[in-house]
Amino acid sequence: MLATADQSDAAPKSSGHIKRSLKTRHLTMIALGGSIGTGFLIASGSAISTAGPGGALVVYALMGVMVYFLMTSLGEMATYSPTTGSFVTYSTDFVDPALGFAMGWNYWFNWTITITVDAVSCGVVLNFWLPNIPSWIFTCGVFAIITLINWLSVRSYGEMEYWLSLIKVVTIGIFIVIGLAIILGIMGGHSAVGLSNFTYKKAPFVGGFQSMFAVFLVAGMSFQGTEMVGITAGESQDPAKSVPKSIKSTFWRILVFYLLSIFVMACILPYTDKNLLSSNVQDVSMSPFTIVFRRAGLAAAASIMNAVVLTALLSAANSGLYASTRMLYTQAKEGYAWKIFGYVNKRGIPVYAMFGTLAISLLVFLTQFLGKEAYNYLISASGLSGFIAWLGIAIAHFRFRRAFIKQGHSLAELKYKALLFPFGPIFAFVLCLIAVGGQNIDAFVHWNWESILITYMSVPLFVVLFIYYKVKYKTHLIPLDEVDLTNKTHD
After folding, report:
1. Inter-CA distances, 37 with 218, 254, 377, Å
2. Is the dihedral of CA 146, 147, 149, 154 positive or negative?
3. Fewest CB atoms within 10 A around its CB: which of 113, 196, 204, 454?
4. Domain residue ranges in the chain
5. Residue 22, SS3?
């Protein structure tokens, strides 16, 4: 699949083009919903258990600031040159084609595997209500649903994602209101909880810097998905208006939702509560969200949260297919993949890129029947791909702004300007680098090579792709005065 521009010349001629059908409300909810996944709904309490309420709040706030800088960096480039290739195209144009090549395949690989993981998890969740039906039947149903949604039109994807994301947002909003009512003694049939759990035993900070560092990695995974707004910019009706608005509103909503949710959990459940350790979709009854709803007297709390988790998983799988399809399409347009994947039908859908992605996702799905070890290795291989994408965003923006000034342009020409340059991209780059390097510190301390290999598998894969393209095509870092800053919109 690692084809180049001179291959597959017999690809069918495109009879359509990418359509700008997504509205501002779609972009905002896509970015917001993409970052509120099952990791937060089920495993968010583990942050409190690890670092205490104070440590969890500090780390999530820090991560929120970092994500803000990344999204403003992406917003500046996306409004200047909106493209479905997003940070992959920017890496190619502003840094080095080898970086764009490696970034594109890394991101596509990540989402292709994630689609399968989310679809399989949907089957597990549905077994909560229908335990006698094999989960693989439900998984196949999820594949069929997301395929239909993405095949129909860009608008159908946007609308579906809007409503799926809205369910998650409303649920978290209700959780916060009910949680605050329990804290104040208005609900739950008990006296006010107050802030007593914030200073319980070793709280508010537990385990010192090492524990906060561990939470930092968990928080980073929770925020991943916000970068998808850059991909949807290429199909937005008015990216100059919708992208900045989407980024600003998404940041504040995520930060408020995350911090308030963690605050509520920490007030109601002490950091020693075993329920905070829940980390699996099969443990929805042990989720902090479920526990809080139960304390408010909601008897069907587990069923409700199970439905919300199912919604989150379906949303993630739906967005995953959209993102990976556009990424494979971009790889073909850039000459990094077979040209057939650059074909777009009359409805504006890169259908061959979509079916090519689905084929690989289904193969990943089938590996679990051959052996769980192979399936788990594939999941581990994509573990750090999101952080690698963030690193690429920071690098591309740093180079873009420097080239923009170097070539005599004025910042007044930019429709949207990222704040605090160059601090923003440098700050984000450093924190992402720390997150990647420190993903499994214990494995290095005890020299567990098998654990190191499993954890960091995506890093050597990325490096191999980068070196392969760089050596074969002898690419180099593009000089700032040679960076192509033509104000263009990539199809």
Report:
1. 13, 12, 22
2. positive
3. 196
4. 27-83+115-325+384-435
5. strand
The one-letter amino acid code at 328 reads: L
- Measured CA to CA, the distance from residue 345 to residue 420 in angstroms comes to 42
CATH architecture of 27-83+115-325+384-435: Up-down Bundle (1.20)
Residue 5 is predicted with a pLDDT of 44
Q: CB-based contacts of 404: which residues, under 8 Å, 6+ apart?
A: 411, 414, 485
Nearest Cα neighbor of 56 from 46, 42, 41, 65 is: 46
Q: pTM for the full model?
A: 0.87
CB 54 within 8 Å of CB 269: no
Q: What is the mean pLDDT of residues 7-23?
A: 59
Q: How many residues would you count in the chain?
A: 491
Residues whose CB is less than 8 angstroms from the CB of residue 225 and which lie 6 or more positions away in sequence, other chains included = 31, 34, 35, 37, 316, 319, 386
- DSSP H helix total and E strand total for the chain: 19, 0
What is the rounded distance in angstroms from the CA atom of residue 484 to the CA atom of residue 106?
24
Token digits of residue 158: 């946007």
Give 163-202 pLDDT, tens digit per residue.
888 888 888 888 889 889 888 888 766 777 788 888 888 8
Report CA-CA distances (Å) from 56 to 46, 63, 164, 209, 287. 9, 11, 27, 11, 17
